[in-house]
Amino acid sequence: MLKSIKQFALHAMKSSGVFKLFLKSPLRQQRLLILAYHGISMEDEHECDPDLFMRPDYFRARMQSLSKYNCNVLPLEAAIESLINGTLPENSVALTFDDGCHNFYSMAYPILREFGYPATLYLSTFYVFYNRPVFDPACQYILWKSRGKTLDLSNLTGVSTSFDLSDPYLRSSAFQLIRSHCVRKGMSATEKDELLAKLSESLGFDYQAMAESRIMNYLTPDEVRYLASEGIDIQLHTHNHRVAFERDRFTKEITDNIEHIHRLTGSDLIHFCYPGGRYDHKFLPWLSEMNIASATTCDPGLATRRTNRWLLPRLVDVSALSPIEFEGWVTGISHYIPRKRLSYNPGQN
Length: 349
What we know:
Elements: H1 2-15, H2 18-23, H3 26-29, E1 33-37, E2 39-40, H4 45-48, E3 53-54, H5 56-68, E4 72-73, H6 76-85, E5 92-99, H7 102-115, E6 120-123, H8 126-129, H9 135-145, E7 150-152, H10 154-157, E8 162-164, H11 168-185, H12 189-203, H13 207-213, H14 221-229, E9 233-236, H15 247-265, E10 271-273, H16 283-289, E11 294-296, E12 315-316, H17 323-331
Parallel strand pairs: 1-5, 1-12, 2-3, 4-5, 5-6, 6-9, 10-11
Antiparallel strand pairs: 7-8
Helix pairs in contact: 5-7, 5-17, 9-11, 9-12
């Protein structure tokens, strides 16, 4: 109900010309909109997880909206420098992508190139070098593709429990039990990959075909090199897509990430994104001491000169965000509309 009311109000403001007036006001012109994306679907991934994957035609429509509103889509570093210096061009936007899925190379990058838009890719590096399906989304996808079947976990986890996979709640429960089993056993990536193969076999799902399609894989080292050579800004997202709250583990995740990306691109690595949007204020001095120039969150909002540069807000654009709501963010109006604070923590392990 609240979403419908909000959309009605936004449509009314657009039709009455408020969108265009607000776009030219200081409330928008002195603020930066940073957009965040994850996966752009290669097949039907968006039907399984619309919060993590977006249809390519939806993403192209988003880019068309930026063009329609004459947005200045800036490289992230230039956008942040202009923000701090008070020299932002009008209608400033920066595009960011998290994680480093193969679909960035195959689906998102061609659309970005079509519009001539720069982008920053916050890259987690473990699955770049261990290029197999990423466990969490792959497991959820296998269970979703097997809806209508019954899963017996006794041969997988040792617990004799059955789940009707046609029920979304039971699918989620099955996933959580499988994930907990992996954590409890301290499974390596190879062991988790073997578990996915075993799970697939029990459900009659073709795991090898999914692995070969790469719909749940990260970029390869060669793809990272190519994207960097084409001007995509590759930046930091931890090595294991993991936020540690102890200083040594926190800094190691980032230093390992720096080492692996630098080996591929040779570029300066000074911009960071908190995996899953999870952060703590104690991280800020640690990032400063590591000479990290900025860090982005998953908290929706527009950034100003007064925004802490290690707590930059971003709008995580997902399939459920309607076109009118997206336009509300582009014009800046949605920043000032009250909203319920959401926790955001997509799994990538």
